[in-house]
Amino acid sequence: RQCETCRPGYFNLLPDNDKGCQECICNITGTVNASTECDAVTGQCPCKTNVGGLRCDACLPGYYTNNFSSPDGCLFCGCEAAGTIPSQPDCDVETGECACKNNVIGKNCDVCKDMYFNLTASNVDGCEDCNCDASGSVNASCNVTNGQCYCKPNVTGRTCDQCSVDYYARDSSEFTEKGCLEVCDCDPNGVVDGDLDCADYGGQCRCKSNVKGRRCDACAPLFYGLNSTHQDGCLPC
Fold first, then answer.
1. Which end of the chain has fewer surrounding CB within 10 Å, N or C?
2. 138 CB-contact burial (10 Å; exposed 0-12 / middle 13-18 / buried 19+)
């Protein structure tokens, strides 16, 4: 009766305002129950949980796209900290796209780019280069978790840079073209410490001092009696 209070939907009663109070102008997309009323003194509209601003017209940091149908107003960005640029932890307020480090992709920056692996927060680029051996691998991609490259037949190593045990390639050209297709077939009588593996290129087995041949299957000149019980493989003539 004394005209000392603003009507609902208005605030900030001032004597020099010819209308007495200002209109709230709440953004009903972001207000609770689509309310158009605000605090009679401050003008603050009643915002949904993830919405801010005097009029409830902006998403809080870490949220995006003020949505009328959402009970909380804005959606959670969900940016993966390990893959997001530290200085830009929040996503685009319209699209929800996070700001990814150089070697990271995905809306939430949670996936390594092709040819990269091991997403970690300490890596300024997010993920490591697969660094697959061009000769021994099928392609330049690797497992995104452990970095294992995809190797050619009988090739091993994380980067596919060596022949598997008991296999070899005749030369680097064969290694590049086909992998390691030849079997070492080392003679157990003539190799050092029973090691049946051989060199990746050429397939030379590790022969005892008095033994020769790619397979370590023959005595050197002036020696005889190849046998695993002989320390040097063969005995002097």
1. N
2. middle
What are 117's strand-pairing partners?
Answer: 128
Q: What is the CATH number of the domain that holds 222?
A: 2.170.300.10
DSSP state of 233: S
**End position of a domain, from candidates 54, 76, 98:** 76
pLDDT in tens, 15-60: 666 677 888 999 999 999 999 999 988 999 999 999 999 999 999 9
pLDDT for 1 equals 53
* The one-letter amino acid at 222: L
Sign of the torsion formed by the C-alpha atoms of 129, 135, 136 and 139: positive
Per residue in 204-230, pLDDT tens? 999 999 999 999 999 999 999 999 999
Quote the tokens at residue 184.
């070492």
Of 50, 53, 61, 66, the residue nearest 24 (C-alpha): 53
Q: Could you count the other beta carbons within 10 Å of the beta carbon of residue 40?
A: 17
Instruction: Tell me which residue range forms the domain holding 83.
Output: 77-129
Per the DSSP assignment, residues forming a β-bridge with 191 are: 207
* pTM exceeds 0.90 for this model: no
Structural element, H or E, at residue 176: helix 172-178
User: Tokens in use for 43?
Assistant: 């003008």
